[in-house]
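Aim 2 progress. For Serine/threonine protein phosphatase, the working sequence is reproduced below.
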Amino acid sequence: MAPSHVPYVDPRCAICTAPAEASCGCEARALEVAISQAEGRFFSPMFMDVRSWVRARARDYILDYYREISKPCRTAYARHRDVIRATYRAKCPPEDPEPNYRNAERIYRKNIDEAWSLAVLRYPEVLDYFFSLVHISLPDDQDPVLQQPSPGRRRHDDSDDGRPPFNRLGEFRHRRRRVFEPKRSAPIPAFPIPPRQPNGQPAVAGRPGWPTPPPSPQAFPQQPQPGAWSMR
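Predicted structure tokens for this construct:
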């Protein structure tokens, strides 16, 4: 500890060596640059992992959702073909069935396209949900990673004031990092299935009161295992 009679002197700028009274701002700008570079080194790999995690689960959900809402289309198409075939065999009226088959296929493809569009248009909602499951956990001020004294100091050394040990930053750098993990308490979203008309065509989008589909095993993340999403 410095003697009380020694005056405090503001150091010069570490970047341009201007006197402290000049308030040049070089150090503040350099700090912002250093923070941006550190963020890139530290968070870029984590964000890539999170992005891959969200992308895979959102894609699985959309595909499951599409399969669910396209089932009535396939059922209606199969029944339509059965009716055409039965009518042709009964010859009432006797006519070439090919135009009817082509018309049935046209309707089926139109319904499939609508079902796929309904599913794909839900990507923003689904992505928001899965991104909302990710959170960042920071160590508190009393965490040992911030409080542990450096080696070589005596237990009752007056210089040990609980601040981070500057000569051990290299050891702590990879010991504990920020943690990304799914929230266990997040509610499951209700993504409605559009009701189908008797002919298999989707009803008008936006109709209230749609039922909620049961989640498939691939639609939502499982409970994370211990240490999941821990970046070490």
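Helices lie at 26-90, 98-120, 123-132, 144-147, 169-172. This observation will guide construct design in the next reporting period.
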